[in-house]
Amino acid sequence: MCGIVGFIGKKRQAAPIILDGLSKLEYRGYDSAGMAVFDGDSINVVKAAGRLDLLVSLTHGGETTKGLAGIGHTRWATHGQPTDINAHPHLNGKGTIAVVHNGIIENYMALRKMLVGRGYEFKSETDTEVIPQLLDLYYKGDPLEAIQKVLHRVEGSYSLGIIFADHPNELYAARKSSPLICAKTEEGAFIASDVPALLKYTRKVYYIGEEEIVRLSADDIAFFDVDALPVEKEEVEIKWDAEAAEKGGYEFFMIKEIYEEPRTVRDTISPRIRDGKVVIEELGLSDEEIAEVSRIHIVACGSAYHAGVTGKYVFEGMARIGVDVDIASEFRYRKPIIGEKDLVIVISQSGETADTLEALRVSHQCGATVLAIVNVVGSSIAREADKVMYTWAGPEISVATTKAYSAQLVSLYLLAIKFALCRKQITEEQAAGYINDLKKLPEQIELLLGGKERLQRFANRYIAATDVFFIGRGIDYAISLEGSLKLKEISYVHSEAYAAGELKHGTISLIEEGTLVVAVATQKELYAKTVSNIVEVKARGAFVLAVTNVGNTDIETNADYVIYIPETNSYFANSLAIIPLQLFGYYVSLGKGFDVDHPRNLAKSVTVE
Ligand code: F6R
After folding, report:
1. Which atom of ligand 1 is nearest to the CA of 349?
2. What is the DSSP pairing of strand 3-9 with strand 188-192?
3. Which positions are annotated as active-site residues?
4. I need a labelling partner for 240 at 20 to 30 A (CA). Which of 29, 133, 247, 458 fits?
5. Which helix (H) or strand (E) holds 385?
């Protein structure tokens, strides 16, 4: 979603650093960009709707916007169109206070009305503009005091970067329910809404806490709570390196990240297998405590939710424990029933998804223990959960998730094996068999990646498709959900996933001559049933691409095109079947000439409700 970068330096100019940092946040999705730099006399603002490149050329790479302190922003429009005027930064009327903001100020209408009543004039349609105006109202020479008062007035979520013209050696920041980090280096101090913006300069960062205010100068950072009392904070070392967030010769991050899946899966599994056993120290629960968990609630959004759907099948089948799986935006408002001995598992790549974070908080209000499966170390969800199981996918830049999703899947498998053993639903010997299958996944994924040209040729045939249906049963249905999302979100082809047995209850009327149906049939006990569904759609003229296990060659009697996945146990088939489906989505988008990594209207990290 929106991105923030701010810098206050000793000698180095702020603008080029801000532009460079913003370019590292482009993957989050945005539709306008801007920055405000203090040149020693006044605050200069340049902002424009469109890509960051425009801002770069308007300022000659930052050359024409001189000054040692500044704040920059990429905006993903929520309140008001993506126009020059609505782009951030926003200023008070005198142009002496500049603000960039991520999040939503929920009571902005009331605040705006109050401010207009006091003679303040507004230029934009944004919720953000109330902040510089409120700061103006409360500012009596002490920025900290003014910010503190503003934070007491605003409701909603925010991460803020602020500069005051009459405090040229300071830059301020604050956050609530929207990510923001800061760091100090030899050359100056930074703020950023996400780690990749800073990787080039430092790997030691501070995570700004809920409702905290930060004062940065070129050589110091001071933290305060919302009542302006000092807060002690420790630096956190980020393990990701700068190269991990670069394309490294690939045309798009998405294909690079697909290629990183074998490593991601290996890195997520291997620290949790010791002496042939699953060891998940982060869980912090004894075997007896695990055995006593009475129900699991998995809560997430989008692809992470789809990983959760697979998790339900795996936990219920392998560990025989009841699992509810919920979309976070529904869970948070549906008054969930959570028992004392239930475990809530939230899944999130970014660790910042607003609905998932709120679902976590709702779970806490219900008294539940929350385990988070998260990719971004130190993210809000990681910090608020009781236990954290990190997926070791490294930075995921492409908006459409691939490697983080794969890491989420294997994290769930590891947990399911552990639960199944503790609940005495499988023997040590069976667990060893599952672990063996898990260890084979990285190589099997590599094998599937070797077939990418065939997928590309097939995708090129379907570039003009307008409707695609994905069908499957059980775990194959969960795979279909994700395969369908991958295709539609980046190629803008309408596609839907259906439980294969459900198609005939209405949707089959949409199948006509040549409609592409992707049938996933990896589950041995459901194979014959899915083949019957393939026959049904074939009879209505569909063209069927089947994804099935190696050896199921009889499927060629009914399917038009077949992709075989290597042999694994049914529970882990998703990890293999999803690879050709991710590649299919990628190649359709590539063939259509789209910006694969930045699909329209989408943001990488959805930090608003
Ligand atoms: C789709 C995709 C999204 C995310 C969803 C949750 O490719 O990436 O559906 O899975 O927005 O995001 P996180 O995992 O960051 O909570």
Report:
1. 14
2. antiparallel
3. 2, 604
4. 29
5. none
Q: Which of 449, 471, 498 is the last residue of a domain?
A: 449
Stretches in the chain below the pLDDT threshold 70: 1, 241-243
Give φ, ψ of 101 to 5 degrees.
Answer: -145, 135
Measured from the Cβ of residue 607, the count of other Cβ atoms closer than 10 Å reads 26
- Domain with 316 in it: 248-449
* Any domain includes 504: yes
DSSP state for residue 153 in the 8-state scheme: H
First vs last Cα of the chain: how many Å apart?
A: 12
Whether residue 301 has its Cβ less than 6 Å from ligand 1: yes
**Beta-strand (E) ranges in 115-256?**
158-164, 171-176, 181-185, 188-192, 204-207, 212-217, 220-224, 230-231, 236-237
Q: Which residues of 1-20 are buried (b: 16+ CB within 10 A; e: fewer)?
A: bbbbbbbbbeeebbbbbbbb
Residues 508-557 pLDDT 10s:
999 999 999 999 999 999 999 999 999 999 999 999 999 999 999 999 99
Q: Is the CB of 304 under 6 A from ligand 1?
A: yes
Average pLDDT, the chain: 94
* Cβ(102) – ligand 1 distance below 6 Å: no
Beta pairing, strands 387-390 & 369-374: parallel
Q: Is 264 helix (H, G, I), strand (E, B) or coil?
A: helix
Q: Which helix (H) or strand (E) holds 121?
A: none
116 shares a domain with 96: yes
Same domain for 64 and 200?
A: yes
State the distance from the centre of ligand 1 to the C-alpha of 227, rounded, in angstroms.
35
* Structural domain ending residue among the three candidates 449, 479, 511: 449
Whose tokens are 């608020």? That residue is 384
Helix, coil or strand: residue 158: strand
pLDDT value, residue 375: 94
Domains: count for the chain: 3
Q: What is the pLDDT of residues 403-414, one digit of tens each?
A: 999 999 999 999
pLDDT of residue 242: 64
Which of 193, 298, 401, 596 is the best mutation target for the ligand 1 pocket, counting ligand atoms within 8 Å of the beta carbon and taking the most? 401
Within a domain: 600: no
At 2 the pLDDT is: 84
In the 8-state DSSP scheme, what is residue 315? I
Would you mind telling me the total number of residues written for the chain in this entry? 609
Q: Tokens 């005051």 sit at which residue? A: 164
pTM reported for the whole predicted model: 0.79
Shared domain check, 444 and 458? no
